[in-house]
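Recap from last week: sequence in, structure out.
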Amino acid sequence: MSRPAFIDTQRLRLEPARAGQTRVVAIDGRSGAGKSSLAAVLRVELGAPEVALEDLYGGWDGLERGIDLLVCEVLEPLSAGRPARVPRYNWLTAAWEAPWVLAPPEVLIVEGVGAGARRAAAYASTVIWVEEAASVRKKRALDRDGETFAQYWDMWAAQEDAMLARERTRERANLVIDSSSLTR
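Predicted structure tokens:
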């Protein structure tokens, strides 16, 4: 995927920092929408590290906990000018690994379902919402994660439904992207 022409990376660099000196670009959307692909492109173009919420969920029922960990372990320390200790959940062993240390960067990409939740968005300079049709999202997610995700799809989608009904992230986003319009 190449960067969509309508995303001005220079503007992303100039948005006011809201996490200390760090400009956080939050990329949110439902599972399989294309968030990771967009994050990979922006990470390279911005020369920015990335925190993937997938590493913070701690299992299939951990959506809300992942958002809480993002705020307390990553965004709050960066906001105070301290390095963050980014949690890392190993999905294969179902165990937490040693966190990685993230010194406060100029720009940080945060990608995943819940990246734009209000408690995280308070630290975000930009919130990007990525959307796609449900059938396409499910196919992408299952193609990516195999049958491992299939048995959890409905449970995960219910967590997304509850969180997004409360958070209304799409409506608060600075930019909404239909991933079907992106060049792959």
